[in-house]
């Protein structure tokens, strides 16, 4: 952490071969997750409106998809994350499975920073589109993805993706696809 604080005016440092982006206002670090971060990601989800999954899923994403996952840490505590992957048959797309920010950190631009960190990763060098599915009532998430499209001077195409009937319980809303791009690099 000392290294991070000392170098924070430079904006970006490399720690253990992982890229960390620093916020001059605090000690926020964005990095690739390790398996040790999986349970904290799971806990953050448990405290949010996101779909619950087993802790195993987060640990598995950290093990096999770290290149396209980001954790945001403040003083070592996970306060935000994105889990994403590049679908094998669509190498120009990064699909965002979940993005979440701790309620104490929302509304400060953190989710936007996390998406940009993901998009700037080497693993995304051939990626031109970002895709996510969002429920029709999730205004925060819709605003986040529309803002990302605007920031990158591109469009956000919204279409039906997973209808409500696909889900085993009546409580799950339909999921709309948000396809953002093409994005110039
Ligand atoms: C969605 C979520 C990740 C946004 O995180 P955040 O760090 O607060 O987002 P940002 O601060 O980067 O905001 C991005 C944009 O969304 C807007 N926004 C954020 N929260 C909003 C809300 N509750 N209602 C409307 N707009 C909202 C912001 O105003 C900003 O747009 P602007 O700069 O044009 O004003 C966060 O609210 C969250 O974790 N929600 C619960 C989990 C979830 O629903 N995840 C998404 C589904 S995968």
UniProtKB/TrEMBL annotation:
Keywords: Acyltransferase, Transferase. InterPro entries: Acyl_CoA_acyltransferase, Ectoine_EctA, GNAT_dom. GO terms for molecular function: diaminobutyrate acetyltransferase activity. Pfam families: Acetyltransf_1. Its EC number is 2.3.1.178. It comes from the Bacteria. The keyword Disulfide bond does not apply. Pathway: Amine and polyamine biosynthesis; ectoine biosynthesis; L-ectoine from L-aspartate 4-semialdehyde: step 2/3. Residues 28-173 form the N-acetyltransferase domain. It is an enzyme of class 2 (transferase). Belongs to the acetyltransferase family. EctA subfamily. This is L-2,4-diaminobutyric acid acetyltransferase. It comes from Alkalibacillus salilacus.
């Amino acid at each position: 952490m000392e290294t991070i604080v000392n170098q924070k005016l430079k904006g970006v440092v490399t720690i253990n071969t992982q890229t960390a982006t620093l916020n001059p206002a605090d000690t926020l670090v964005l990095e690739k997750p390790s398996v040790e971060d999986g349970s904290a990601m799971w806990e953050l989800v448990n405290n949010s409106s996101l779909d619950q999954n087993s802790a195993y899923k987060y640990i598995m994403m950290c093990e096999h998809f770290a290149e396209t996952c980001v954790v945001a840490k403040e003083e070592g505590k996970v306060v935000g994350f994105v889990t994403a992957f590049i679908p094998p048959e669509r190498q120009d797309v990064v699909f965002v499975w979940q993005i979440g920010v701790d309620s104490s950190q929302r509304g400060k631009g953190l989710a936007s920073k996390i998406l940009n960190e993901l998009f700037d990763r080497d693993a995304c060098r051939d990626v031109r589109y970002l895709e996510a599915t969002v429920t029709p009532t999730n205004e925060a998430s819709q605003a986040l993805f529309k803002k990302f499209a605007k920031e990158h001077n591109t469009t956000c195409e919204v279409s039906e993706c997973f209808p409500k009937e696909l889900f085993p319980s009546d409580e799950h809303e339909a999921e709309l696809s948000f396809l953002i791009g093409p994005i110039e690099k």
